[in-house]
């Protein structure tokens, strides 16, 4: 299933962060007023009735001068148009309708993306409704009055947002053609890779920073199989401050990863593995995607017999939360190990879809428990009744136990390792759900 993306766009101080936090719930609620504090809160998973979506905040405008605000808003809106399925355009009833709003509204209208116009800070519906009607003039539909901080009008707004979701997309079962997202920092070689894989020049590559184009899906045939590559390259770099660039690249990554079965994270061999790489990898990890780390520009490195070993160690340390990820050393320039990349993608796809029968799983479980007893606490021992695999992509297991509290993270890890010893599941994260069951039901 691929989750829709909803982007919030709006001028500084209209209440984007507040709305974001209300929608994202308790999990992400950094209260602001300190510039920089909210920077990391860029996306969140939201559930409304039967709908799930990923919310992204395109924010991060520094209110320096009006000209800059408008150009930054345009950038925000462009990112939203490029990546989102539905756009929430948020305005402020107290500031009223301003010129920048109208300009951005024009841009959004032309994009033909569904836009939900929201007028925030309507703390008193009776008294402020007349002011809300003014926003009809934007020509992008009916304004929704809300109070983000007062949590008013949020339900109606979400009804409209989720009403635009494509039911086919939400219920999408298995797609026949696997989708591979190529992600990584700017300049790491994403376009070069897709270009090389394609073997022609349909994807534009440039040495000049500032090549503009939208994310492209490229269908590539290899050994008679089709693959769709989702490429996040070509972010505009002109006039962007570093943090802004990073935010944009993260939003695009989230949207590409969301649609993918397998993620190929490119790391620049000439720069080593960085904090930003770890952040990007985290997005794929959280979303349970198949994971391949490809260290690119391997041709450009002076190597001795220890180089690959040292590099491996560094990557594994920095990305310690994903020991399952496959690791490859490639060159998009020379084509080194690109056939191996396809083999690895095929393997990871298989493991993402592998189902293990309950009988076999429980043999592994029994043996594992015999070798290492489940933990106990204050005289009470964890009992594990059985385990079953409930889904794939990522493979997800439910473990039935007598008392959830007794189930230790380290014991789950131990069981995971036992499953991997038998089945591999290379390149794919495994998910475990612990459920309690009364002994009598046994
Ligand atoms: N009265 C009222 N104030 C609100 C409401 N929602 C947000 N605010 C206030 O508006 C101010 C700006 O809110 P933020 O959520 O930080 O706005 P923002 O759009 O994220 O701002 P930037 O990060 O600068 O882009 C804060 O002081 C909020 O408390 C509302 O519904 N009613
Ligand atoms: N030596 C070497 N250079 C490479 C390799 N792959 C890419 N490059 C160079 O790295 C630079 C950036 O490559 P791009 O493919 O444009 O990188 P990108 O990740 O698509 O960049 P953005 O569009 O900024 O996201 C170009 O100068 C490429 O020629 C490689 O395997 N080896």
TrEMBL record:
The lineage of its organism: Bacteria, Bacillati, Bacillota, Clostridia, Lachnospirales. GTP 1 binds at residues 10-17, 57-61, 120-123. It comes from the Bacteria. This is GTPase Der. The keyword ATP-binding does not apply. The keyword Lipid metabolism does not apply. Associates with the 50S ribosomal subunit. PROSITE patterns: G_ENGA (PS51712). GTPase that plays an essential role in the late steps of ribosome biogenesis. GTP 2 binds at residues 184-191, 231-235, 296-299. It comes from Fusicatenibacter saccharivorans. Belongs to the TRAFAC class TrmE-Era-EngA-EngB-Septin-like GTPase superfamily. EngA (Der) GTPase family. Residues 4-169, 178-353 form the EngA-type G domain.
């Amino acid at each position: 299933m691929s989750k829709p993306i909803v982007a919030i766009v709006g001028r500084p101080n209209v209440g984007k962060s507040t709305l974001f936090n209300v929608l994202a719930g308790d999990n992400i609620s950094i209260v602001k007023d300190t510039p920089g504090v909210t920077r990391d809160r860029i996306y969140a998973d939201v559930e409304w009735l039967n709908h799930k979506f990923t919310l992204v905040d395109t924010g991060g405008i520094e209110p320096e001068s009006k000209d800059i605000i408008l150009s930054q808003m345009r950038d925000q809106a462009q990112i939203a148009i490029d990546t989102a399925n539905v756009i929430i355009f948020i305005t402020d009833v107290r500031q009223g309708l301003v010129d920048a709003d109208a300009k951005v509204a024009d841009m959004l209208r032309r994009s033909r993306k569904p836009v939900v116009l929201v007028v925030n800070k309507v703390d008193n519906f009776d008294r402020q409704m007349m002011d809300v009607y003014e926003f009809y003039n934007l020509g992008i539909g009916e304004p929704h009055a809300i109070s983000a901080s007062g949590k008013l009008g949020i339900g109606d707004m979400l009804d409209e947002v989720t009403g635009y979701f494509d039911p086919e997309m939400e219920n999408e079962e298995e797609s026949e053609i696997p989708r591979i997202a190529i992600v990584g920092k700017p300049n790491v070689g994403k376009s070069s890779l897709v270009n090389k894989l394609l073997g022609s020049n349909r994807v534009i590559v440039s040495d000049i920073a500032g090549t503009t184009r939208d994310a492209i899906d490229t269908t590539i045939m290899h050994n008679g199989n089709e693959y769709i590559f989702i490429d996040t390259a070509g972010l505009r770099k002109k006039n962007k401050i570093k943090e802004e660039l990073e935010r944009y690249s993260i939003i695009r990554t989230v949207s590409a990863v969301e649609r993918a079965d397998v993620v190929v994270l490119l790391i620049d061999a000439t720069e080593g593995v960085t904090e930003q790489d770890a952040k990007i990898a985290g997005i794929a990890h959280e979303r349970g995607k198949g994971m391949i780390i490809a260290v690119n520009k391997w041709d450009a490195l002076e190597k001795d017999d220890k180089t690959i070993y040292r590099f491996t160690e560094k990557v594994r340390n920095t990305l310690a939360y994903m020991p399952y990820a496959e690791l490859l050393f490639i060159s998009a320039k020379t084509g080194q190990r690109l056939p191996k990349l396809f083999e690895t993608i095929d393997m990871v796809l298989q493991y993402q879809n592998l189902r293990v029968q309950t009988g076999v799983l429980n043999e592994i479980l029994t043996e594992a428990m015999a070798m290492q007893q489940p933990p106990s606490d204050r005289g009470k021992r964890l009992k594990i009744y059985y385990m079953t695999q409930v889904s794939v992509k990522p493979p997800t297991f439910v473990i039935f136990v007598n008392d959830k509290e007794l189930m230790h993270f380290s014991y789950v890890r131990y069981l995971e390792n036992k499953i991997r010893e038998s089945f591999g599941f290379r390149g794919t994260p495994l998910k475990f759900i612990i459920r309690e069951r009364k002994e009598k039901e046994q």
